[in-house]
Amino acid sequence: EGEGPIVVKAAGLAAGKGVIVCADREEAKRNVTAIMDDRRFGEAGDTVVIEEMLTGEEASILAITDGRVLLPLVPSQDHKPVGEGDTGPNTGGMGAYAPAPVITPEVMEKIERQILKPVLGAMVDRGIDYRGVIYAGLMIDGEGEPRVVEFNCRFGDPEAQVVFPLIKGDFGQALFDAASGSLSPGSLDVADGAAVCVVLASGGYPDAYEKGFPIDGLDEASADDLVVFHAGTTEADPVPVTAGGRVLGVTAIGGSIQGAVDRAYEGVSSITFQGMYYQSEGGEMPVAAILMGSESDRPTMEKAEKVLEEFGVEFETAVISAHRNPDRLTSFVKEAPGRGIRVFICGAGLAAALPGAVAAHTELPVIGVPLEAALNGLDSLLSIVQMPPGVPVACVGVNNSRNAAYLAISIVALEDAGIAAAWHRFREDQRA
To answer: Strands 95-98 and 77-78, how do they pair?
Structure first.
């Protein structure tokens, strides 16, 4: 029902490429025809599932179990679309990073309580002695609520390439314990920092592509903080050759996600093969965070999103109430520098506690947007400008999220030459 985005999915196994997000019913009809009549995915498309499109941020949770005890691993996030900026058809995954910042400790507790444990409990109730991996592909909405996209019984690819390098404990022993029914509660030690994987694919993937091209530079890409995972390769003399759509996964470990991104692309720059394709933006992290206390604030705050998009500034958006979700807000803000955030834009009405609560937990600049709710927004404006000494919050006009975005851009421009040039051109045009 309705005309909104619709998901068309081949019910069979389609190598991670059988899900198509359609803008409307007509596009959905065309793709159903392509799957069922034109046999785009072969037998996998004998049955088609039509689903609601979930909105939010994706995350992957891998856990091992011995049938009674669950041991979740580091949460991760992969990038399915083949094109830059999450465009183009879905693939098996063009890259991934871990840990996924969207999975705060509070969200992880919900996932275990609402999803993982009930699934394991249901198998126990049915007499199924399941020992192995539970893979949960999730969508986390703006309120931090997890919804299930898919389950699987194997480690995800390329998620495993960023999860495994961060495990410090004896992972082999944990797997043995799971298989033998003696897994201990608790968690494996996790290394500090982050891991990022960039997938190198054959030209044309996920559609038709050629194979057999020599791969050069693998030795140069090897280092203590770099791992090259082989996916679609075959041994040959003198060097391996391409033998699949996704050829290699270059994984880097760094002190932060952005540090791992930079190191991964250094590794990528050493490798060459004919037709090599990868997402140059696949691992870029947001530098601005837009926060609001309620979904009703979104129409106003979307104006800030549009301004940031015009300048090419990467950002993330979250709905977190300072009153209803104080613990989640604290975790979100404290973890922000590690995932690349450089400035916060906070929209709030009435008592307008959100900007001050954010500023209390970060040394990054915070820009408050007073939202009109009562007294024409004067109450929220006064609340924001009267922060105590040492907890500074910049304040723009009532509902003026666009100006908040412009101020955020000027802050980001201090460290980004490309954004600085765009900002300079914008101001020059204004003065002309």
So the answer is: antiparallel
